[in-house]
Amino acid sequence: MFRISRKLDYGIQLMVALAKENEGKPIPTAKLSEMLDIPLPFLHQIGHSLMQAGLIKASPGPRGGIRLSHPAEDISVLAIVESLEGKICLNSCISENEACQNIEDCTAQTMWSTMQDQIVNFLGEINLDILAKQELTSDLLK
Fold first, then answer.
1. Displacement of CA 3 from its chain's centroid (Å)
2. Is the residue at 139 inside a domain?
3. How far apart are CA 128 and CA 17, in angstroms?
C-alpha cells in the first residue's frame, strides 16, 4: 500500500501549528499534544527528528516549548518529509545507493524516476506558510 505514514502526517500538522504561532513564541509540547491529538511520546519523537534537522528549536523551562527555527516561508514540505522519512525513493532501482541489475531491460525505471522527480519538485515548491495560511490552491496542484 502506497500511503503517507502517521509520523509524517503528524509532523506536518505539528509544523503547521507552529507556523500559525505568529509571534514565534515556544508552545509547550503538552499543549500541542492535546491540541493536535498526538500522543505526547510520539510528538516528542517527531519533535526530536525535526530538531535534529534544524527545523525547530526547543526552549526549556516553565515558559518553554518548541518553535520554528526559521520563518515558515523558508521551510519546504520536502524538508519536513526528508527530516522525518529520509530521502524520497519510490523504487530501489532508482536509488543512488543501489545499481539496478535489470537496467538494460527495464520498462518501468523511467516512469518511477519521473514520478519521483515530480513528487520531490512538488513538495519542494510548497512551503510551510502556504499550508499555515491555508493557501494551497488548485493552481499549485497543476
1. 14
2. no
3. 10
Report d(CA 106, CA 140) in Å as an integer: 32
Q: Give domain status of residue 142, yes or no.
A: no
CATH number of the domain within which 27 lies: 1.10.10.10
Domain assignment present for residue 137? The answer is no
Domain around 68? 6-132
Quick one: cell of 32? 500541542
One digit per residue, the tens of pLDDT, for the chain of length 142 reads: 678 999 999 999 999 999 998 677 899 999 999 999 999 999 999 999 999 999 999 988 888 899 999 999 999 999 999 999 999 888 777 766 566 666 666 777 788 889 999 999 999 999 999 998 886 655 555 4
